[in-house]
Amino acid sequence: MRFAELNSALDELESRAKALSAGAPKRSLNLRAKTYEPVQQVFGRVELAGPQRLFPRVRAGMDIRGDGSVEAYMGRVKRELIEQRKGETAFESLRRAVR
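Now predict its structure.
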């Protein structure tokens, strides 16, 4: 989807991330050699890129974990977690970082 304003894009990203978070399976994944707890699994991802089409200046997003928690990050190939400040949600930290 395309948005004329950054705030609209961030609102949609937050809405989709919250919907994914609500549907997270919250169960472990048992493989022969290892068990992955829900917090170790990426259940879903929503991303933001722009404003340029070909080589976007900003790439950011949210990882939704299997336990329903969310983490904000910057980058695409090399993702860097955005540190949350005291009293700040992951969504607020993403908004702060992309401005």
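The first strand starts at residue 29 and ends at 30.
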